[in-house]
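Side project, low priority. Logging it here so it doesn't get lost.
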Amino acid sequence: MQFDLVKHPGGVFSPASEIDLERLQRFKTGETYTAEIKLTRNPQFHRKVMAFFGFCFEHWCANRSGLEHMDEHSQFDRFRKDLTILAGFYVQTVRLNGDMRVEAESLAFANMKQDRFESVYSALINAAIKHVFANTKDQSILNRLQAFF
């Protein structure tokens, strides 16, 4: 399982979002667990991107996509990847049966340079306006989206 965590003084880590908090409830208090910690890119920028995805996710409907039976974390993860693909940042691969498969580029710090990540980020807003918000002209939604940049 993977979680986004924020480090606080005294060596304490806490979940970075409500979704991560909910998933952490599965673990028993007082038990010992092994974790591999990786630093994300500019933490403030990363939080901004995740807040952007969260805002868009709140306005998206899982029922229309066939994902309504998945847990919220899985829905969010699929949504995030699909929006990245719609923004034009993906890799095409061929399956063993010859079918073409499209996979979102990883936004992980180790997999993408900062300038490329910033290009992805600016393309995400256009993909969100077109595919999540149906080319809305609602100024309050457009202002909220612009506030993430």
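Brief comment: The longest strand covers residues 90-94.
Revisit when time allows.
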